[in-house]
Amino acid sequence: MTVPYRTEYLENFLKQKYTPEDYPVLKEQRTAWAERKPFRGLKLLDATPVFSNTLLKHLALIEAGATLFVGLSEGIAFDPVATELLSSAGIPLLHNKQAAMDLDLILDCAAAFSHWNSSLGYVELTRSGFEEYRKLNKRVFLADNGKIKLIETLLGTGESYFRAMKQLGYEQWKERKLVIFGNGKVGRGIAIRALKRGALVTVVSDPAQNDPSLPVVEAEFVSYADSQAVGEAVQTAFAVVMATGRVAAFQADCPPDFWHQSKALFANMGVEDEFGPSIPAERVLMQKKTINFILDEPTRLCYIDATMALHNRGAEYLLNNSGFTGMILPPAEIENELLAVSKSKGKISSELAGLFDQKQNI
User: For 330, which DSSP code?
Assistant: First the structure.
């Protein structure tokens, strides 16, 4: 029996904010699932951070016939307007600290609901969550690993850092020095946007961990192990942003004498405290919280549409491929199918052109 959700509350709100070109992949997914109802009779929890754009993800799951629950968790931001809309639509909100309930599928974020039972498995949205699940020996589809995540990180996250800084009053970057800790997907995404704004970019990273599959960024590079060079970069910076995925990375890499003398704007783009306990929270913008979560839309829908659709699709993959166990990476055919929709029908098709060319220089 399908639960009679009052989805008109969500539909009316979303029509005022987005056009179909913002979310072509979720739109096609919803249309396809409306016919097949792959999750009919299944209890499914979605723990994606709840913001206005996440509601489109929920609508696709409802259209697929799921009995849907939305998960909130300690330390992960959400938009109260969006949660109120979910409640108005009759969609239950659960918290990861409450008594666990048995579910058929859990679409998780940062392993917040890894301690709850899911009979068919879990779909994890983040790299940090994947590392946690790997310790637990559970059946997990990793939506973070693959080409689609590059849209969110290389294009979307970098854009959201500068949008958040603009909201805080910092808009001028030309000839100003930005020091980025981390040279992974998020770090490079920020560097790409910074260079386009005319900023002087220094990247602090581990040279041994360089990922050649990502676009090449034409910036100054400093080894995290060269504490003198790291400190001098921080001391002379206009802004410093953390994107390493390592707890207390800044504290470990930058000598205190240098950051004590720095007037730079410190910001964190990681889920964890990447500055470390030695750096007071008040020294960092937004008290060390992930800075783009001050925004109404932390990552614009057009950049996260395909990621959310892949997260949903992972649940269908677990349902239809019971023989696969352990950690499951997104099959290329699924990613290519979703990417084709983004490239042909989305508003960022021009930005996607060349993104996956490994020889690209930024």
Answer: P
What does the alpha-carbon distance between residue 130 and residue 145 come to, in Å, rounded to a whole number?
9
Q: Which of 24-28, 241-245, 354-358 has the lowest mean pLDDT?
A: 354-358
Model pTM above 0.85: yes
Q: What are the CA-CA distances from residue 319 to residues 105, 195, 312 (Å)?
A: 9, 43, 11
Phi, psi of 109 (to 5 degrees): -140, 125
Q: What is the pLDDT of residue 2?
A: 63
Confidence of residue 1 (pLDDT cuts 50, 70, 90): low
Q: Which tokens is 73 given?
A: 């968790």
By CB atoms closer than 10 A (0-12, 13-18, 19+), residue 48 is buried
How far apart CA 262 and CA 257 sit, in angstroms, is: 9
H or E element: which one contains 105? Answer: strand 105-108
| Vertex 53 angle, CA 50 and 59, to 5° | 85
Residue type, 91: I
Choices 3.40.50.720, 3.90.180.10, 3.40.50.11440, 3.50.50.60: CATH for 154-294: 3.40.50.720
Instruction: Please give the Cα distance from 179 to 242 (Å, whole number).
Output: 9
pLDDT of residue 362: 44
CATH code of the region 8-148+301-352: 3.40.50.1480
Which H or E run contains 142? strand 140-142
Summary mean pLDDT of the chain: 94
Cβ pair 120, 104 in contact under 8 A: yes
DSSP structure string for 23-64: -HHHHHHHHHHHHH-TTTT-EEEE-S--STTHHHHHHHHHHT
For the beta sheet containing 122-124, the strands, ordered from the edge strand earlier in sequence to the opposite edge, are 93-95, 67-72, 43-46, 105-108, 122-124, 140-142, 327-328
